[in-house]
Amino acid sequence: MAKIEGRNPVIEALKAGREIEKILILKTAQGKVIEQIRKLAKQAGVYIERVNKNNLTNLADSHAHQGVIAFAEPLSYWSLNRLINHAKKESDSPVLVLLDELKDPHNFGAILRTANAAGAQGVIIPSRRSVGFSPVVAKASAGAVEYLPVAQVTNLARTIEQLKEEGFWIAGADIAGEQLHYQANLTGALGLVIGSEGSGLRRLVKEKCDFLVRLPMQGQVDSLNASVAAGVLLYETVRQQEAGN
Question: What is the dihedral of CA 196, 197, 198, 202, to 10 degrees?
Answer without folding.
Answer: 20
